[in-house]
Amino acid sequence: MFSSLITSRIVATLSALLVVLVGCGAGVWQLNRADQKISLGESLAAKLQLPVLNANADSLTLEQALERRIVARGRFIQQEAIWLDNRPRPIPEGGAGSAGQSGFYLMMPLKLDGQESVLWVNRGWAPRNNENRIELPPVKTADAEVTIEGVAFAHPGRVYELGQKGDTKAIPRIEQNFDLALEAQSHGWQQLPFIVRESNSDKNDGLVRNWPSPTNGVDRHYAYAFQWFALALAGFLFWLINGLMKYRRELAVNGDRV
Description:
The protein is α/β, with parallel strands linked by helices.
């Protein structure tokens, strides 16, 4: 039987082994991604219960502010806005909407009141014009001093980027990703070592701020994991059944009773 299943079927055995390894590996990876999202969600939920930090009054490091609620007061520097391209519309867990709709995250520096420092704010999402990439969506920005509330993160999220970063002097600045250190270097100003994702969803400024929970998509990871494990099992069963059928045929040819 060993010869019928393996020795005489080296190519089939190696192919089946590859399918099993790939399926199991991808399935485990999907389970790990689900665990990571659950851990992130639990960490964020715990930190959101802590007291609100004040960017104007506190000298905050990234470690102190990360995933904490932040309030800041100042004026937006509108001419330095950065539009992050290829960002999907944020849809909260259980919400309805066109989740596949592509658009921009609007990153804008906020000159803090009473300080020389600048705080970068992810003001929200706006849809893009699919026919004219350079035409930006209409967004309202107050010229007066404003108070914003949000959650601190190390960056606004990254997407795959081909080539080098675009011209930092271009107007409007449409980028794939945001580099906090590069912005500090190019502008020569002091800035806080984190960004704040604004959470005020009731502002009538043309931006969407229905930010999803980090656990969004966990069920999808479990479904993908099941599919990969099922593929691995199907590959193994296909190899085993064909091997057993070959073994039975060999017994029949040799005149042995099955």
